[in-house]
Each structure stands twice: as structure tokens, then as C-alpha cells.
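Tutorial handout. Part one gives the primary structure; part two gives the three-dimensional structure as C-alpha cells.
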Amino acid sequence: RYGSPKVLLPFRGKPFLRHIAETAIMTGLYPVVIIAGSEIDRISKTVEDLPVMVAINQRWAQGQGTSVSEGIKNLPDKIGGAVFLLSDQPQITPTIIDTLIQTHRTTQKPIIVPVIDAKRANPVLFGKECFSKMAELDGDVGGRSLFNHFPVHEVPWYDTSMLQDVDTQSDYQELLKME
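Part two.
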């Protein structure tokens, strides 16, 4: 939709992907798995010095569901949950990720989602009980399709910048105003 790989767009002096990977690492998420379709070489180079794994999604053009599925298939069995960070939201902070993880630990709900101004936002934490359904996702159907299959625990949140993603040049210009 954007016309070029959004993950490589600069934000605060670094590509989107670099911000997202560093945020995941700062919060202690492990393993950090990056799913890449096109531009695999450039994407890999962007994070080559970080403790992350880059996995290839051969079916990336078929939609985000294929990337979610690929991500789940690349996790070790012992993982209790996964936080999905979107490639077009480099402004996500470690604080929200830490809150999602802590909420999952205390509630054990299968899906933990931030809610801002009555809108569900990203990132979303999915517990292990969601993984088999997530591995079956295909096409342009993402993890939100599981909200009808599992209990969702909403976490009230305050940071309205998390409602912004980058789908157009105009969206990107709005994001840059946050710098």
C-alpha cells in the first residue's frame, strides 16, 4: 500500500525496523523474530548486529496473515506468549510492551490488547493457547481475527500516538511530526 518497504523508512535517525527491534530487545522479549518478505537482504543488514532472527515469508504478497503464521511457526515450543509489533509503528515504547507482559502474567488471559480512546490498539500479546489458530492464518487476515475465538483482556492506555500507523505518505509525515 505504501509503495516502498516501510520498515526501512527513517524515523529519529534509524529505520523503522531498527527502532522496533531495539524496543523488543529492551523489554526482554526473546526470541525476537522478524518476518520479512521483500527486501530480505536490506532488512537483514539493518539488524545484523542485533540478537534477532530474520525469517523469510515466501508468501508475503498474500497478506499479513501469512506473516503472522510464519512468525508463530518460528517460535520455540517453550514460549508462553508472543507480542506482535507492527512494522509501521516505530513509536511504540517499551512501557506498553512491559505492561502487556505483566498483565498476561497476572491475568493469564489469552489475548492482551491496549485500548486508547475506546479503540483497540497495537501491539497485542497472544498467549500460547492462540498459537495453533495463528499458525493457520492466511491471506490478509491478521491476529485480530482471533478476538472472536478467545477471551480478550483490554488494558486502558493513554498514549494516543500508538493509534497511528503508516499506510500513506501523509501518515508518514504525521509520524515525523513526533520526532
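Part three, for discussion. The CA atoms of residues 113 and 124 lie 5 Å apart. The chain has a mean pLDDT of 93.
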